[in-house]
Each structure stands twice: as C-alpha cells, then as structure tokens.
Specification:
The complex is a heterodimer of chains A (254) and B (256). Chain A is globular. A six-stranded mixed beta sheet of chain A has the order 6-7-8-3-9-10, with helices on both faces. In chain A, strands 2-1-4-5 form a four-stranded antiparallel beta sheet. The N and C termini of chain A lie far apart (43 Å). Chain A is an alpha/beta fold and 254 residues long. Chain A contains ten helices and ten strands. In chain A, strand 4 (61-66) and strand 5 form a beta hairpin. Chain B is 86% helix and 0% strand. Chain B contains nine helices and no strands. Chain B has helices at 2-33, 40-50, 55-77, 86-124, 127-133, 138-176, 181-191, 194-220, 225-255. The relative contact order of chain B is 0.16. Classes of the chains: A alpha/beta (254), B mainly alpha (256). The A-B interface holds A 51, 54, 56, 76, 80-81, 83-84, 86-88, 90-92, 94-97, 107-108, 111-112, 160 and B 37, 121-122, 125-127, 129-130, 132-137.
Chain lengths: 254, 256
C-alpha cells in the first residue's frame, strides 16, 4: 500500500554546483492526489529540487522514483516519455514569446496529438476559460500582466491532462488577490483534474490555506514535514523562525 | 613570462573545449535531423529569416565591393595596359573569395546575432526548459532548423552576391572608366570557370553552417539574465566572423 500512496519518492538526493553543495542527501516522499508544498528560503535549492523531479537536472547521487521507476539513469528518450505525465508552471510562466496565448496553450496538443485544428481549439478555449481568460486567445504574451501570464502558463501545463503538476513559486511577484486566485486554481487542479500538485513556495499564508502536506527544505535536507497544523505547532526553531518571518533566529543570513 | 604562457595555454584550452562542445551540439543536431517529427514550417521560417531577409544587405554590400574592386584593379592594371582584365579580376575575386566571405560576414552580423539573442533569451526565461518539459527536444526544435537553413541559404545568397559584385564592376569599369564592354565580358568568360563558382558556393555552405552553429551554441548555453544574452550575442558575432575567416583560408588551401 505504501507504493500506491507515494507517487514520487526521492532517496539520498545530493547535488553540488562547483564546491557548493545545494542538496545534501535529501529524502522526500510526495503523496498522490494531494497538494504537496515545499517551503524554504530563496536560493535554498527549491528550484533545483523541482528541476530534478522533472529530469532537467541530474543528481550527483541518489534516486528519484516516479511511480517506482528510477528516472536518474534514464536516457533523454525515456525521460521524454515519463515527462508526458507531468505539467509544469514556471516561475515567470516561460510562455513562448513568438506565439500567441492560444498557440502557446495549443502547442503541446499540436506536437503530441493527432487531434484536428478544430478539436484543439475547443480544448484550448475550454482551458483558457478554466483559468478565467476567455477571449484573450489572440493576445501575445508581452501584452499580458504577470498574473495573466501565469494563468496562461497553467492552462498550457494542464492541456495534456497531466497526472502530476509542478508549480515553481506560483504566487511570487503577484498582488494578494491574484495570489489567492492562483492558489484557488491549484486547489481546482487537484480536485477537478485529479492531479498531484507539487508546489514550491515561500508564501506562508497561501501555503497554510491550500497545502495537504508541507515540507521544509533547509540546508539541503527536508528538516520537517507535516500538515499545516503540525507545521504551525512545530517546535523546531528554524521552522518557527521561517513561518513567522522573523529576522532573528537560527537561520543564517548570507 | 611564465604567467604569460600560463594565460595563453589556459585560453587555448578553453577555446578547444568550446569548439568541442560546439561539435557535440552539431552532431546532436545532425542526428535529430534524421528523426521525425519533421517540422517543415519551422525550417521554411528560418530559410526566410536567414536567407530572404538578408537579400538586400548582401546585395548592397556586394554591389559596392564589386565597384571598389573595379576601381582599384583599374588603377593597377592601367600601369601595364591590361585594363580589359578588370572584369575577369572582379569576377574571380567575387566568386572565389569575396562573394562567400561578404555573405558570411553580413549574415553573421544580421542573422547570427539574432539567432543567438533569441535562443539566449529563451534560455534565460526558461522557455527552453519549458520545451524539454513538454517532451520536445530543444535541439531538434530550435537548433537543427537554423543550421540546416544556414547550410542551404548561404550558397543561394552567394550567387546573388557574385552577380551583384560583377554587375558593380561592370558599371564602374564600363560606364565610368570606359573599358570596352564586350572585352570586359569576354575576359570573364575566358578566365572564370564554373569550378570557381562551385568552390565558392561550397565555402558559403560551410560559412552558413558555422554562423548558425555558433549563434545557436552561444544562445543555447547563455546564462546570467539580460546581460548574459548581450554578452553571448557579442561573442557569437565575433566568434563566427573569426571562424569564417580562418576556415576560409583552409578551405581555399584545400580546394584551389
């Protein structure tokens, strides 16, 4: 039963850039059909971790099991196959500048399915409406605000109906209302699409509202994990300092 | 002294490493060329961008190069009464040497830089990662069509460049300097062989490969935000111009 519960398991993940060790024997089990949120400081390796999960980076040591298959030794070709299960929302949305909103969302469908243009457009309009952007299809990414770009990015990430969706700091740089909208969309992604959501964030209040499981990444390891209530009650001084946003405490500022 | 040699060796090794990585990218691009899906539209778009859109600047610079060549050779040839050879000299210089090189340098400045800036921006804004995440190989999607378009379009542009150069030489030689028009053309037929043109086109193809490969390579491995894109673009233009001129010597030594 353990196997079914966890969709991604990471064992002893170690990664260094030059002499700087950013992930240091990290262990992490991510639960299926839940919103798993990894919190931690900026520059603390959260993005590096998420890039390992989707195979954009290869670890120095350790195993990354997606549905019990280790993706570390996989070739690019096998990896391309595994990635079909994933969708990812990038920090700055990473929309293709040269394509319109519609074309961006349609892009994976054109590339990977044999659906007709008409079918694709129906799906695209549906997904755009899902993120509250109906009628914006012909705009270019440069004409959109940050929050709109992220919602287009989310529509594109969901268009292939992935089973696992990764969010790289989905609310950073957004106003509180837009941040809450994005958080709602993350919850809907879980409920309506039945997808496992993996979010990295340092937005504590949003995290407490939507997370099923919270993991705190500190100095290359997961130091605490639990439900929002458990994290709030945590006696770990690092966690307490982080979630309360205090300048004084055990966390080294550098 | 020791420091100087250390510095020299260090830079040389770095250059070799860079050329090696570039070759690896080229080999990857070649293998992806043979594998479906074949995205014809992307390829046509790059042919338009690298080729068609460079027509004007290549034509204009070649025209003036032919004109100045005629002026200079006329000045020298007049001393021993060989003015009628101006046409043949211009034609040989253009087809064997200047046509491909001017085309290569102009396209490197115009399209090579744009390729690098575009791919570099896609790198720093995570668009290349986004492609990978969507199971689309970025080398196949971005690099391969550009290199192939460079290979094909540069020889075609060079033909235009050759024609414009010779036309420029004709205008200056025959219209301005009063060389006999028939003799001017006749000498060209006499001295220029088709092999001269073909070899020039082979060079152009290699230059097209070089400038697109360097642009793609520098863009693909860009880091450090907007500043990084700027740096990579400058390096791409300088490096492709240098490589074009160096390889020009070796290709000439090999072929002629």
């Amino acid at each position: 039963m353990e196997q079914d519960r966890y969709i991604i398991r990471i064992e002893g993940l170690t990664k260094s850039f030059g002499t700087f060790t950013i992930l240091n024997g990290l262990n992490l089990n991510l639960e299926k059909d839940r919103v798993n949120i990894i919190i931690g400081r900026s520059g603390g390796g959260k993005s590096v971790l998420i890039k390992h999960i989707i195979g954009l980076l290869k670890p120095d040591k350790g195993r990354i099991l997606v549905r019990d298959r280790d993706i570390v030794p996989m070739s690019e070709r096998e990896m391309a196959h595994v990635r079909r299960e994933f969708g990812m929302l990038f920090q700055e949305a990473a929309l293709f500048d040269s394509l319109s909103v519609e074309e961006n969302v349609a892009f994976p469908l054109h590339e990977h399915t044999s659906k007709s243009y008409k079918e694709i457009m129906t799906i695209v309009q549906d997904k755009l409406a899902g993120v509250g952007l109906q009628g914006m299809g012909s705009k270019m990414p440069a004409e959109l605000s940050g929050g709109m770009r992220k919602r287009v990015g989310l529509a594109r990430a969901l268009v292939m109906e992935p089973k696992i969706v990764l969010f790289d700091e989905p609310t950073s740089g957004l106003d509180p209302v837009m941040g809450a909208t994005i958080n709602d969309l993350i919850l809907r992604t879980k409920d309506e699409f039945g997808a496992t959501c993996i979010v990295i964030s340092h937005d504590i209040s949003g995290t407490m509202k939507i997370a099923d499981n919270i993991f705190m990444l500190y100095e290359g390891k997961i130091i605490v994990q639990g439900s929002p209530e458990e994290i709030k009650e945590s006696s770990d001084p690092v966690v307490r300092q982080f979630i309360r946003g205090e300048a004084k405490g055990p966390i080294q500022i550098n | 002294m020791k420091n100087f040699f250390g510095w020299l060796g260090h830079n040389f090794l770095e250059l070799l490493q860079e050329l090696g990585r570039m070759m690896l990218l080229f080999i990857q691009a070649f293998f992806w060329l043979l594998r479906p899906p074949f995205r014809i539209r992307l390829f046509l778009k790059q042919m338009e961008f690298i080729g068609v859109n460079s027509l004007f600047v290549v034509g204009l610079t070649s025209l003036f190069t032919g004109m100045v060549l005629a002026l200079q050779t006329y000045y020298a040839f007049r001393m021993f009464g060989a003015e009628t050879l101006v046409g043949a000299t211009v034609a040989l210089s253009m087809t064997r040497e200047l046509g491909p090189v001017i085309t290569g340098l102009m396209v490197a400045g115009r399209a090579g830089s744009a390729i690098c800036a575009e791919i570099g921006t896609m790198r720093v804004t995570e668009q290349i990662d986004a492609l990978t995440v969507m199971s689309i190989n970025p080398v196949q999607y971005l690099v391969m069509p550009r290199i192939l378009a460079g290979f094909i379009m540069l020889p075609l542009l060079t033909i235009i460049s050759d024609v414009m150069g010779i036309f420029g030489g004709y205008v200056v030689g025959v219209q301005l300097l009063d060389i006999h028009g028939g003799l001017f053309m006749n000498r060209i037929y006499e001295y220029v062989e088709l092999a001269d043109v073909y070899n020039g086109l082979v060079k152009a193809s290699v230059f097209g490969g070089i400038l697109t490969l360097v642009g793609c390579y520098k863009g693909f491995y860009t880091f450090g935000g907007a500043e990084g894109v700027g740096r990579a673009t400058t390096q791409a233009v300088v490096m492709s111009c240098v490589l074009i001129l160096i390889s020009d010597y070796f290709l000439t030594a090999l072929m002629f």
